[in-house]
Every structure is written in structure tokens, then in C-alpha cells.
Amino acid sequence: QVQLVESGGGLVQAGGSLRLSCAASGRFSGINDMGWHRQAPGKQRELVAAITRGGTTNYADPVKGRFTISRDNAKNMVYLQMNSLKPEDTAVYYCKANFRWVSSLKDYWGQGTQVTVSS
Description:
Blueprint: E1 2-7, E2 10-13, E3 18-26, E4 30-39, E5 46-51, E6 57-59, E7 67-72, E8 77-82, E9 91-101, E10 104-109, E11 113-118
Parallel strand pairs: 2-11
Antiparallel strand pairs: 1-3, 3-8, 4-5, 4-9, 5-6, 7-8, 9-10, 9-11
């Protein structure tokens, strides 16, 4: 059983910063791409940032220059540093990872962590 657990969400004023963490645990051979998605009320879930095992990153346009994704392969962790937060960043943030087990690949999601940015 594979599990992803996010932490670090909370309430912050506009212009502030938060750092999200996501820890992977369970039985797997390795982890390929990892990423963060978010879902605001009444909106579809959207990609925020992703990172390959080798460290190549990809960001959604609204967060470029403000958010930084990173990972620690030895600890099976992925992070999202969020700076210059805006009210429109308010959403539930989900960690997603692609796991390898023997010859199979499968995506897993975390349970989500709430980020609220007040104006």
C-alpha cells in the first residue's frame, strides 16, 4: 500500500509564504514524476508544478516566478515553496506521484492540504 501525506497548509496574508511538504511511504520500487495540483471551490483540479526524478521542473503560468518545487529522492519527499501568495492561490493542494512497483506504474494522490490566502 502506497501513501502520500501532505503538510504545511494554512492561512496566510497576501504577499506571505508557505512551504508544503509531501511524504511518500509504502511498498514501491521507486518514484517517477511528482507534482502538486490544486482545486479551488467550484473549479477543476489543475496542475501547479511538477518535477521529474532527475529534477526537471514544470510550472503553471500563474505561479511561475513565485512557486518552487523540489524533491528529495532519498527521503521520498516533494516540496512546494510558495512565495508572494495571492488570494487566488486559495485552494486545496494535492500531492501526486507516479510509483513503480516491479513492472507496473501507478499514480497516487494525497488527501490534500488547505491553503487560504487572505487579502
